[in-house]
Write a structure and sequence with these properties.
The chain is α/β, with parallel strands linked by helices and about 325 residues long. The chain has a domain of about 220 residues: Rossmann fold (3-Layer(aba) Sandwich), CATH 3.40.50.720. α1 links the parallel β1 and β2. The longest helix has 20 residues. It is globular, with a radius of gyration of 20 Å.
Length: about 325
């Protein structure tokens, strides 16, 4: 199968590219050259920008095109213009920030908390551009909105598309370094006080190698076309439970102490409404595509902590 990956050199991309190559597929990666992650020798690279794509991409007539970096409505429109009529089908990475619960968490909108896990049919945000007032790595925050991306893609019928809604992805090479701040504190503090509402909050995560399995399965299974799938861990712990796991894996002998936010210094308070959990239901992708984690949790945490420590040591040298 000819598979064209747009992006594919960031966090999850190299893992899925290697998996597809190992399965014997003809894989081409089109990217801007900002990341030079090692890829198998059989994988072809094409450098460029989708703002001015080379005609070679259409001439390839890929059986499947996998878009890892569709962030804005304009990205989605450009993608459809480029590949309708030439690609067999497409897989596009979205995000679980599309849910209304995320908008309420960010205090961009109001409403009662959702009960239970968020399925693919859970209410979506009514607010738009959730990061417009924030600085997020490598994202055009002024125009970013995965809801607009999904709407453009699913409104047409010429190019069959699968949407994968990613969770908070963590692991080595995570540009957001999700556990860095906590690991730093664990080096010097035996008791870490955290807001009690944050301690009880649930936010679905996914280890990088596990998450990369999802697009691989979607590539292989034609019946995924026209479907939307949540991706992430099967059970979402509270943040206190998650940080406790991180501490144990790091050899920390201290304790987390949930306290009312008013008892914390202002710099340690969080502006979110943690009554709104972003805990997602991943039963659809598990049941329909056979998605399952491949990395033992203890091994995943150990690899991530080793990488974080290496980054910290390199910064000090």
């Amino acid at each position: 199968m000819r598979v064209l990956v747009l992006g594919g050199t960031g966090l999850t991309g190299p893992f899925l590219v290697r998996r597809l190559d190992a399965m014997g597929h003809e894989v081409t990666v089109f990217h801007r050259g900002e990341h030079r992650e090692p890829l198998p020798s059989g994988v072809r690279r094409i450098l460029g920008d989708l703002a001015d794509p080379p005609g070679e991409l259409r001439r390839m007539a890929p059986h499947v095109v996998l878009h890892m970096w569709a962030l804005t409505q304009a990205d989605a429109i450009r993608f459809l213009e480029l590949f309708h009529g030439v690609a067999g089908r497409a897989i596009v990475i979205s995000s679980c920030d599309v849910y209304r619960a995320f908008g309420c968490l960010q205090r961009l909108e109001s409403g009662p908390p959702d009960s239970g896990l968020l399925s693919e049919d859970a209410p979506l945000r009514e607010s738009r551009y959730p990061y417009r007032q924030k600085k997020v790595l490598e994202i055009d925050t002024a125009a970013y909105d995965k809801i607009l991306v999904e709407q453009e893609l699913m409104a047409q019928r010429e190019l069959p598309i699968t949407i994968l809604r990613y969770p908070a992805v963590w692991g080595p090479h995570d540009p957001q370094r999700r556990f860095r701040g906590w690991l730093r504190r664990m080096q010097t503090e035996t008791e870490i006080r955290i807001p009690e509402d944050f301690a009880a909050w649930r936010w679905t995560h996914g280890y990088v190698r596990d998450v990369a399995v999802a697009p691989t399965l979607a590539v292989l299974m034609e019946n995924s076309a026209g479907r939307i799938y949540n991706v992430g861990e099967s059970a979402t712990p509270t943040m206190a439970e998650r940080l406790g796991e991180v501490g144990r894996a790091a050899g920390w002998r201290g304790r987390l102490l949930p306290v009312p936010a008013a008892e914390l210094p202002e710099a340690e308070r969080m502006p979110h409404d943690f009554a709104h959990h972003v805990a997602i239901d991943t039963s659809r992708i598990r049941g329909e595509l056979g998605y399952a984690e491949i990395e033992p949790p203890e091994q995943a945490l150990a690899a991530t902590i080793d990488w974080e420590r290496a980054q910290a040591a390199a910064a000090q040298s």
